[in-house]
Amino acid sequence: MGHEIDMMSKSSNIVDVYVGARLRMRRTMLGMSQSRLGELLGVTFQQIQKYEKGSNRISASRLQHTARVLEVSPGYFFEGAPSDSAEPGFAEESSQSYVVDFLASTEGLQLNRAFLRVRDSKVRRRIVDLVISLASPEDENAGESPVPDDTSVR
Fold it and tell me: Exposed, middle or buried, 122 (CB in 10 Å: 0-12/13-18/19+)?
């Protein structure tokens, strides 16, 4: 039994990993380094790395301070978070987790930043159409348009 507890403590909680991914995504969207965020929070950049990987849990007070520094509400870190109530291995993949994973990647952040700088809605629509046409045909959503045809995309 003691061995099982040790094994459980070494694996990251799915919510901690998700919060860490949201932390990384927001930090990179602001163009802030791990070192700078660490300075502002009074921790080392290695601690920021651990938070972002989900290997260290962020305390409530530190999360609130982090939210202030990153100019978001504390709830931002939990938006779309998966439930941790299911047994590991039996939980269904969140329909949003692949989006968060992509947006937290270097390519996702670069693409998102560049896309947001395109002001013309018709050009944005053409970019989306281009990406859809380049996507693998086996993608189940290849024919669907993730961006509405109106000008609500900024």
Answer: exposed
Residues 3, 35: Cα–Cα separation, whole Å? 36
User: What is the per-residue pLDDT across 66-97, written as a single tens digit (0 to 9) for each?
Assistant: 999 999 999 999 988 876 554 444 444 555 56
Q: Please tell me the distance from the alpha carbon of residue 119 to that of residue 153, in angstroms, as a whole number.
A: 9
Is this structure's pTM higher than 0.70? Answer: no
Structural domain range at position 75: 2-93
Amino acid at site 113:
R
Burial class (CB in 10 A: 0-12, 13-18, 19+), 24: buried
Q: How many domains does the chain have?
A: 1
